Amino acid sequence: MRHYSAGILEPMELLEGELGKPRQKYPQEQNHPWISILLDIYHLVDSWVRVETELRGLNIACKKGCGHCCKLLTVPINHLEFRGLCWYVFEILQGDERYQVKSRFLDHNEDAECPFLINDSCIVYPLRPIGCRQFFVLSRPCFARENPWIKRRQDIYSALNHDISWMIAKMYFPFYGIITEEEQRKAYEEGFLIESDRPLTSYSWVTIGKKIV
Ligand code: SF4
Ligand code: SF4
Known about the structure:
Order of helices and strands: HHHEHHEEHEHEHHHEH
Radius of gyration: 18 Å
Mean pLDDT: 91
Number of domains: 1
Helix content: 40-55%
Bound molecules: iron/sulfur cluster
Largest sheet: 2 strands, antiparallel
Strand content: 5-15%
């Protein structure tokens, strides 16, 4: 892993370096240009998380296979993220994984845990929403059923800041037909993107599950 030295390069220069690295690509993107927008946004978030955690020397406690938070907390997602999750389930997942998701969807209700957590692992990991990509706890992993928002808020690390949120918003806006800089600034200040967020668990996954064959 590359170790950054704070002060030698500015965070935005480091970010440019990270963004220059290849992101995951899918042949199916050709048929759905909006998927490329979403994947570019996720690439930006992941790149920024790498820069920030390295620069600040953060001791991130979250590890693969730790999914207590996916059972306890629900993550807000916007319309494009919802479409991305559906696309991944319908076009990318195959065989057993697809049927496992179908089964989780059919059992889902609004109070249930995230339907994408299967065997303590995120089955849509490459398409997991921004909320899952930039939320971490520091120092030690959570215990089962420990809600860090209540028990250890000081350990929560959320990577997005104003500059990165604005970069993300500018990437989203064309999808919603918000094109000019003036329109985008206005929409951003009015909280357009935040207002369209809904908890992931509140979507009608049962209805979607019935369409999975
Ligand atoms: S999408 Fe994946 S990472 Fe996010 S809450 Fe669900 S299982 Fe967890
Ligand atoms: S937030 Fe807590 S439960 Fe979730 S991955 Fe990190 S350590 Fe595990």
